[in-house]
Amino acid sequence: MRLSLPVILVASLVATAAQAAEWRVQRMATPARVTAIETVDGQARVNAGGLWYRIEVAKGDATLNFVDAVPKADPPDGALPDGRVATGTRDIARAWLAEPTGRYDHGILGDKLEAGSLVIVTRDGKRHIVRLKDDAVFEYLQPRLADLDGDGRDEIVVVKSYLKQGSTLAIVALRQGSYEIVAETPPLGSPHRWLNPAGIGDFNGDKKVDIALVRQPHVIGELELWTWNHGGDGRLRKSAALPGFSNHIAGTRALDMSAVADFDGDGILDIALPSLDRGRMRIVAFAPAARDIATIGLPASAATNAAIVASKSAAPMIAVGLSDGSLALIRRD
């Protein structure tokens, strides 16, 4: 039977509404105001009143259980003061941002110190440094490690900001025994225009690793999908884009307001992240095309990192702290 266009549109709207209705927000009881959420060893941890708690799920019920704070190691010499060390499981053992500099006065992450170099320590103990020229900085806190080309070695994903042209997403890879920047997205065009990575994985089901980012998450909020054409011209190419997202609050160090999981059960990774006004959580798929799986209204605006809460008997859940100090658990019925 062939359906007319109006019938197809109505059916699509009904399906979308039904799908969104499957998701709901549960406010979890907390001992104090929630100020931060982090993911440690794959588990969501919540800071409430200065103490850390782990979210645990049993028989569909989620609870908070106290855990000791993870001991913080002393930062490496010369590291960015508020930076974090990325640890790898392949050829790269550790990587961090270093050589703090004040040559870029943006301050989007809470201060006006950014990194002038990237330090990489490989599994064999060798130390490599990727140092930028005076016209740019690494405007981020922690490099991201991922095998982008499937060769068993990690590449490094960083945010590089030009003093006069704004930010790019850059890939650092091993070339003839040394690490160098091998690809960049086009600069955003003017100083103080910034982007924030949202996730790395195969989001469109083509068996290639994609990098999702939010362009200017404070004013534009375009969610973009980029893929590194490592076997061809070596460039990063944009394959999809959707408007109306944010994954950062200006002046804060909460850079992980997005969460990656297979939310619709089709075997392909999806992304959950707040709307541009942070009043809704949007769950987005890129296969077979870029679209919202669900849009869930929040009782207050998102204010912390988001984290995946895994359950053996249900779809992945999303934990996020809200601006009123409460903890929201977004779950599918």
Structural class: mainly beta
Oligomerization status of the protein chains: single chain
Poorly predicted runs: 1-18
Distance between the termini: 33 Å
Largest sheet: 5 strands, antiparallel
State the shape.
globular
Please tally the β strands and state the result.
Answer: 25
Helical segment tally?
Answer: 1
Question: Nearest-angstrom radius of gyration?
Answer: 20 Å
Helix/strand layout:
Blueprint: H1 5-21, E1 23-28, E2 34-40, E3 43-48, E4 51-58, E5 61-67, E6 86-87, E7 92-101, E8 114-122, E9 127-131, E10 136-138, E11 144-146, E12 155-162, E13 166-175, E14 178-184, E15 195-201, E16 210-215, E17 222-228, E18 236-242, E19 259-261, E20 270-274, E21 280-285, E22 291-297, E23 302-309, E24 317-322, E25 327-332
Antiparallel strand pairs: 1-25, 2-3, 3-4, 4-5, 6-7, 7-8, 8-9, 10-12, 11-12, 12-13, 13-14, 15-16, 16-17, 17-18, 19-20, 20-21, 21-22, 23-24, 24-25
Description:
It is a single chain. With 333 residues, the protein is mainly beta. The model is unreliable at 1-18 (pLDDT under 50). The strands form 6 sheets. Strands 10, 11, 12, 13 and 14 form a 5-stranded antiparallel β-sheet that branches. The chain has a 4-stranded antiparallel β-sheet with strand order 1-25-24-23. The chain has a 4-stranded antiparallel β-sheet with strand order 2-3-4-5, with no helix packed on it. Helix content is 5%, strand content 48%. It has one helix at residues 5-21, and strands spanning 23-28, 34-40, 43-48, 51-58, 61-67, 86-87, 92-101, 114-122, 127-131, 136-138, 144-146, 155-162, 166-175, 178-184, 195-201, 210-215, 222-228, 236-242, 259-261, 270-274, 280-285, 291-297, 302-309, 317-322, 327-332. A hairpin with a 5-residue loop joins β21 (280-285) and β22 (291-297). The chain is globular and about 50 Å long. It is built from 1 helix and 25 strands.
